[in-house]
Design a protein that fits this description.
Pfam families: DUF6158. The protein is an all-alpha fold and 71 residues long. Helix content is 68%, strand content 0%. It contains three helices and no strands.
């Protein structure tokens, strides 16, 4: 299913992740069970690679529970 995430450049990894997130709703609503399973597996694979590369990724404080309470 595509290029191994470890083989992707940073730009390629982000491009793939963005594309999967854009196509998620259509896949979820209208694709076959097999296509949905493949989409889910590929998304998880790419997200794991992103987290491996960026273990201390920048978390927006507004996306945390405390930030939501302030809003």
């Amino acid at each position: 299913m595509g290029i191994s995430p470890r083989g992707l450049t940073e730009e390629g990894l982000l491009r793939e992740l963005r594309h999967l997130h854009v196509t998620r709703t259509e896949t979820f609503l209208h694709a076959s069970d097999e296509a949905l399973a493949n989409h889910t597996a590929r998304t998880e694979e790419l997200e794991r690679e992103y987290l491996r590369r960026h273990p201390g990724r920048d978390v927006d404080p507004e996306r945390l529970r405390e930030g939501a309470r302030r809003r």
